[in-house]
Amino acid sequence: MNVHESEKISGLLNSHGYSKTYDIENADIIVFNTCCIRDTAEKKILSKIGDLKALKRKNKDLIIAIVGCMTQQKGKAENILKSYNYVDIILGSNNHLDLVKYINELPKKKKIIKIESLENNNLIENFPICRDSKYKAYVNITYGCNNYCTYCIVPYVRGSEISRDPEKIISEITNLLKNGVKEITLLGQNVNSYKFENVDFNKLLSMIDNIDVVENFWIRFMTSHPKDFNSEIIETIANSKHLCKSIHLPLQSGSNKILNLMNRKYTREQYLNIIKNIKDNIPNCGITTDIMVGFPYETEKDFLDTIDILEKAKFINAFTFVYSKRNGTPASEMPQISAEIKKDRIMRLIKKQNEIAKNLSNKYINNTYTAFVESYDNKNKHFITRLEDGKQVNINSSDKSILGTFVKVKIINAGISALLGEII
Ligand code: 5AD
Ligand code: SF4
Fold first, then answer.
1. What is the distance between the alpha carbons of residues 39 and 43, in angstroms, rounded to a whole number?
2. What percent of the chain has pLDDT over 70?
3. How many CA atoms lie within 13 A of 374 on its CB side?
4. Domain range for 40
């Protein structure tokens, strides 16, 4: 989500004559697009802002701007300016598209802070986007979130959920496809609750699947919410031409007590039913998840319930997090678990998931698949490709023309997170 927001900021600056530089010493403007979903993300950004003090001393004309959801927290912008008085502009996640306007105002004003909430009528469309890839792209379908999971800061900093007009979505996707993009990921905090007039998520998926400007393309979407993930979506994917057999379905916890405290609105039994339904109807579907350990009141038994779901669901990949307290959320008022227990649980969780992922990865060996060649990894000197189920396959090839195309690959080796393949 944030990567795509950065593409928009980059597009905006580009359209006003600025260009990207990889040499920070020579930059005229440095923009930090921040995230505050976890404490670690926030600390990392603050330390990077701290590193800029010397640069600003050397170059008085350097403009430093902080944008994104971290600034949207109560009192945060003022605190940043207090600790880092060399920062020039702070914009909320709904004001960053006005960045150029504020840059131009800077000579008159010494510091600029603008933090506003998003309203339906200020959803900006048709702005320039400087996409990182020519072949894969992100497309927002919703903004904000209404779910108020008790650990999560997103609804407070990003505001209520707004669905984008389906016509605008279809037109953006059609243009991307006409321009050679082959893989599109639909984005939203909870894409399943998309609703614009009489178009719900399922209808939107069918509309996108029926786009016929090019023959070959793949559609993915994230993030789903188990409380809204219904069997119609499964049916639509199973019968589609372009929707990938890949679903990211955050579990968070395998314990009913913790799920309830998290306000997730589903039980472990309901979650496992969805997994069964997916596996029964979409053969070889890659299911991935987000899991958190150390939420308030989590006991060893609750943690073992999470491990139990890991064993049953067999995720091809799991993003694992240690719960971190976010000010202003209901969970921040609950009794917190010790850092040692959190550390012990996250290590056991990762170990278990790695075993599961490795076993699943081995099953790909000697089989052949269609893979989409996403990018070239200059550091490791291989192409990064992805299968329909989301599994990454690295490929050694000297043929640069395969970039952005679908190729047939045979899997020759398997690691935990990526496979090794060769073109056949
Ligand atoms: N602490 C730790 N992880 C969090 N996530 C969201 N909020 C927190 C938090 N306070 C995780 C959830 C979510 C993912 C994007 O980030 O697992 O699905
Ligand atoms: Fe946060 Fe829950 Fe919304 Fe996801 S669904 S963004 S975890 S409140």
1. 6
2. 98
3. 19
4. 2-119
pLDDT surpasses 60 at 121: no
CA 212 to centroid of chain Cα atoms: 27
Q: Which of 152, 190, 298 to mutate to test the pocket of ligand 1 (most atoms within 8 A of CB)?
A: 152
Q: How far is the CA of 291 from the centre of ligand 1 (A)?
A: 8
Q: What is the pTM of this model?
A: 0.94
The backbone torsions φ and ψ at residue 411, rounded to the nearest 5 degrees and listed phi first, read -85, 125
Q: Please state whether the peptide bond connecting residue 40 to the residue before it is cis, i.e. omega within 30 degrees of 0.
A: no
Rounded distance between C-alpha atoms, residue 207 and residue 188, angstroms = 17
Residue type, 401: S
Last residue of a domain, one of 315, 338, 362: 362
- Predicted confidence (pLDDT) per residue in 62-83, tens digit: 999 999 889 988 889 999 999 9
Question: Quick one: how far is CA 214 from the chain centroid?
Answer: 26
**Angle at CA 74, nearest 5°, toward 71 and 80?**
45
DSSP state of 25: G
In this structure, the answer to whether residues 43 and 74 fall within a common structural domain is yes
Is the model's pLDDT at 120 over the cut of 70?
no
Measuring CA to CA, which residue among 144, 129, 157 is closest to residue 194? 144
Residue for token pair 């393949």:
421
Q: Which two tokens stand for residue 400?
A: 């640069």
345 and 373 co-located in one domain: no
Phi and psi at 197, nearest 5°, equal: 50, -120
Residue 229 corresponds to which tokens in the numbers above?
A: 């993930």
Residue 123 has pLDDT above 80, yes or no: no
pLDDT tens sequence across 30-43? 999 998 899 998 99
The pLDDT of residue 372 is: 98
- CATH code for the domain in which residue 353 is found: 3.80.30.20
Residue 31 bridge partners (DSSP): 65
Under DSSP, is residue 99 helix (H, G, I), strand (E, B) or coil? helix
Cβ-proximal residues to 379 (8 Å cutoff; 6+ apart), any chain? none
Find the 213 Cα to ligand 1 centroid distance in Å. Answer: 38
Q: Which ligand is nearest to the CA of 266?
A: 2
392: which residues sit within 8 A by CB, 6+ positions away? 384, 385, 386, 417, 418, 419
